[in-house]
Amino acid sequence: MQYCFGPVQSRRLGVSLGVDLVPHKTCTLNCVYCECGRTTVLTDEIKEYVPTNEVIEELRAILSSHPDLDVITFSGSGEPTLHSGIGTIIDYLKGNYRYKIAVLTNGTLLYNSDVRKRLYNADIVIPSLDAATEQAFRKICRPHRLLSLQKIIEGIAQFRKEFKGLLILEIFIVPGINDTPSELEALVNATHFINPHRIQLNYLDRPPAEKWVTKVPIETLKQFAALFKPIPVDIPGTPEYRLLELSLPLQEMILSTIERRPSTVDDLAYSLGKDQLLVKQILEELLNQGVVEYYEEDRGRFYKKV
Predict the structure, then answer these.
(1) Is the pLDDT reported for residue 140 higher than 90?
(2) pTM of the model
(3) What pairs with residue 15 in β-bridges?
């Protein structure tokens, strides 16, 4: 598969088939916590990065077997709304299948009315807002020089008014930057202005782009969650495990996954719904072939494609 990956078991959305519409790390932001690493192409240019018709053909081939999915998710290793054809692909899926459609976006382009319209037929849109002051925004997200935080907040708020589906606002807490009383107050005010259906408070779970980013204790996140009332706040955990029917051989699925984000044996076994020993055996074979490499972090050994 060239543009799709999975299905994988997502801690947020259940069993998800991923769709990746832009080249690796092509994004409007260069976030310090990004599990995909540092941005290599920092841009705000909206264009057809990969052929729309080829993505649709690949989806048609995969979905012809009627896989057991909870959702089809536009995400991957870059910003999906940079692709000018995302609306065409969403419309194709909604017109021909019954799967729910989710879009994971950093929200930076929602000030653009054309971008907002392209997402109207999605069922779930999850934009990010990690800071509500310019200083914290630039420290955490390191945006493209033409992006304006105020325009981003206003764009997400406008999309919330227009969108008929579920809007979940994702906030990533970076200790030492957006966890101070003044930064949290600004985030709360911006969040109430946007008025999402729900909030997800996220924390470091995989190796970040910058090594100095640390994890927030769950108890601290629970305290922060209370600040956003009455908006419901989720702190992502582990959903019910279920074995998955994979669309490709396990070795290919493992490579497809770690090409986009480094993962431990436990991560891969969970997301792909397979036995840990089997996953470990395949990774050892790939290591011997020189196809993958690993590095040690606090949470264990993370594998990535060479």
Answers:
(1) yes
(2) 0.79
(3) 9
